[in-house]
Amino acid sequence: MPAAVSKQRAAKWIVPGAPLAYGVAMLVTVERLTKTYRNFTAVNDVSFVVQAGEIAGLVGPNGAGKTTIIHMMLGLISPNAGSIRLFGRSLDKDCEHILQRLNFTTPYMAFPARLTVLENLRVFAQIYNVREPIAKITELLERFGIAHLRKKPVSRLSSGETTRVGLCKAFLNNPELLLLDEPTAYLDPQAALQVRNVLVDLQRTCGTTILYTSHNMFEVQRICNRIIFLDRGSIMAAGTPIEVTRKVLQEDRDAPALDEVFIRIAERHSNEAVSN
């Protein structure tokens, strides 16, 4: 974290009112990040950190800025202002080093359609310098229940099957940091449960750090240690699921209710649209 950022301020970014776990590495440090497109501000002065071994949820309505932040973290687009440090390094100077240590998936990822599942994953295994790639690919295909599809062209897969291929790709290099953008969007409930179990197991056994975006508030509530709730490009609440619930609903709840939080924000937008 930049020296100018005090320990007290860093603690506020993690969980308001809670002490910072000193000695725990900050794998992600985002400071005053801003992205604009002409007259539209997609991300507005956003700051947060993600600790090593944490599963953090980056959530909010459509257009909140979630995917834009993920794309800036991957170096796919550049911010207009602010900074991102991953593993204590800058993407501008250490891009290759950083990208070897993380991975990413989204259900909207496009694979070469004529290649089979195995051929696609072998290409990515080569990119990530995976040792014994066939063994690793076989393990992942079995873990996500698609071993029978290994010789099938991607063009012939369903949306849910393609999503699981993307998840296999995301685990190929045993990443220290996983950026997951709506990873269960096209999965049936059983497959989504399987993915959640794999993610939680990975975090517990390997200490993998995960930044997770989803519109499924039940899912986020179940697996995320901490929530960063975005609205119109800005952070409106951050903390544990129960802390975010209490702050947004302004009620002393005993249990988290992120679905209600999401609906409350959506209703606010609808009322503003009607009044305008």
List keywords for this structure.
276 residues, alpha/beta, Rossmann fold, six-stranded mixed sheet, four-stranded antiparallel sheet, 10 helices, 10 strands, 41% helix, globular, disordered N terminus
Mean model confidence by pLDDT: 87
Output the helix-strand order.
Answer: HEEEHEEHEHHHEHEHEEHH
- By secondary-structure content and strand pairing, the structural class works out as alpha/beta
- Helix percent reads 40-55%
Give start-end ranges of low-pLDDT stretches.
1-23
Q: Quickly count the helices.
A: 10
Assembly of the depicted chains:
single chain
Q: Spell out the CATH superfamily of one domain.
A: P-loop containing nucleotide triphosphate hydrolases
* CATH architecture annotation name of one domain: 3-Layer(aba) Sandwich
Strand content: 15-25%
Question: Rounded to an integer, what's the Rg over CA atoms?
Answer: 19 Å
**Biggest sheet: strand arrangement:** 6-7-8-3-9-10
CATH topology of one domain: Rossmann fold
Between the first and last Cα atoms, what is the distance in angstroms?
A: 42 Å
How can the largest sheet be summarized? 6 strands, mixed
The CATH class name of one domain reads Alpha Beta
| Total E-strand runs | 10
Shape: globular
What secondary-structure arrangement, pairings included, does this model have?
Layout: H1 7-14, E1 26-37, E2 40-51, E3 55-59, H2 66-73, E4 81-86, E5 89-90, H3 91-101, E6 102-105, H4 117-127, H5 133-143, H6 159-171, E7 177-181, H7 189-206, E8 209-213, H8 217-223, E9 226-231, E10 234-239, H9 241-249, H10 258-275
Parallel strand pairs: 3-8, 3-9, 6-7, 7-8
Antiparallel strand pairs: 1-2, 1-4, 4-5, 9-10
